[in-house]
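Cast an eye over my tokenised protein here and flag anything odd:

===
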Amino acid sequence: MQTFQSDGVTIAYREAGDPTAQPILLIHGFGSTSEVNWLYTGWMDRLVKEGRRVIAIDNRGHGNSQKLYESALYDPRDYMAEDARRLLDHLDISQADIMGYSMGARISAFLSINHPDRVRSVTFGGLGHGMVTGMINAEDIAQGLEAETAQGLTGSARTFRAFAEQTRADRLALAACMRGSRRKVPAEDLAKVTMPALIAIGTKDDLSGSGADLAALLPRAELLEIPDRDHMRAVGDKVYIEGVVRFLERRP
């Protein structure tokens, strides 16, 4: 992996494919990493085979990027979307396709709103109308991450605690991120996302909110349903991967 400085914060990223090919930037979900979200699932290999330059960021507080412990430093509009924009600057990429999953989709939305000229197309994976209304009880999950043990945790708190332990993440940094990254995307701002957009959500995903309701807010959106997949298991599904490949082929 490589690193760069995003306004004083060390951000890690990985890159694959022909550096002269059309670029796509991948932004992983909460508690994950570029490796877990995009490399292990086969995404990077497939997109490289499709002839694309693939860049995958480790969001601040995650993976090999710098760990921060103030929740305000994880605002998805003011900080995390700007990390992604600065990575494009660092790599001298004027415009890229963007794909984010879950929290990464929220970051992708703010990147598309803040810097529409930098986004050729955007794919929102694992997040529908929940980006507007809010998804889950962030405080329960944050407290679960901070707890000395996982004993007694239930629901989403238990799920995300187990995932953090599995990936050997910095749980205190993730707790700060959970509290700071839940900023809702204003519905009126989504009307400004005029580039081609794809919304990809598992049919058993009970965390993301309605994909159809989100699509209705976007001028040029398509909806891709991933059959029989919940929020955690949709990430590497073949329907999702093939749907994105076809979407990228169709977009201008």
Summary: The domain at 2-133+186-250 is CATH 3.40.50.1820 (Rossmann fold). The chain has a mean pLDDT of 96. The chain has one domain: 2-133+186-250.
